[in-house]
Amino acid sequence: MTIIPSVGPILRQRGNMHKFEHKELLERIKEIDTPPVDQQEFKKWLEAESHKNFLLDNEKESEFALYFSSKFSFFYSVLIPRARVAPPYVTDILRWSGNCFETRCSYTSSWKNGSLTIFLEKSPQDMGPETLKHTQQIIYGREDEGRISGQKTYYEILQEFVHATGIHWSPDRSAYCKINKIGDIEEIVSISNANDDGISLISFSREELDKYMAAGNYAIIRFFEFYLYDPLDINYPSNSKENLHSAGPGCFYNQWGLPTRNSIRGFQIVEPKRGYDETKRLIFNNPPKKYVSFVAFDFRNKLIKEMSTDPRSTTNYFDAENNNLPFELSPCFFSPEVMSKYKNDRDKYVIDSRKITCRGSWTLKRIDTNEAGQIHAYIV
Description:
Helix content is about 15%, strand content about 35%. It is built from eight helices and 23 strands. The two termini are about 50 Å apart.
């Protein structure tokens, strides 16, 4: 497998301004991962039904957990060519091993025929079974051993995904983000690194993940392992027996260890929610534009009226023959208070003498103020 380098800068998780969906995922996993005090509830918890239901529910949600690590649970996801898991070789894939910290590349030397040879030794992730020889790592865990204090562990994301989605690291949000069409920041990959609770979670926007899977003809394999037990119980049952189970379509696991403790180890195959063909069409098929209307001065027809910003509702000097449409340079008017929104959010908007720019996503040019103090701009 060819190693695709992950993103370059050292990126540590410093902020805690995660979006709601990521925080909600984290709280749900923490809740199902906490052993109940009541003995009857504890026996139910050992059966791991809540854990398995989380996997199935999360597959349908807008925020997808690709990586999670705690005392009792572990998720880890990789990309795999769709053809390799259609259908899945269940018993083969169930022998998976590995995590996001194993891939590496280093300088290596060797002596051959009396001369020194220097080369790059690439060590792609070895996940064991033959079916998994063609997986592509998407999360790269790294550790900065030279860091004396603070968090030594951090995570990088597959560079191809970073470039295809146009995302950048935001330390304040602990996330890889992009600017959407209206200038708002969208968190695409959110990272909660292990702190005092020892819990780490990396979640992806399902929409962006689906687009990447569809364009690359990939599926996701989410490996999981739940080892549920009473921390005070040190006796492992000697009569444990491994059994193969299915939790739902594409989700298989081995289970053993009941009644005093339970171990579940398996995998889940995840494909784009809308299917490959429809998701591919969504990459470039933008939804129809919506146009708003403003009170404007139609100086061509000498009227003050409500005018639409739809280009089909106006004309220009060159195309004005045989129609009486307003000119696209008709001015529309606003009260001065409208500017407060832009002046009060200087992180999002840049205001020059006659122009407003929103994080590179849109620009309103040639704004001005008339004698009545009204703000005006051209309709198109």
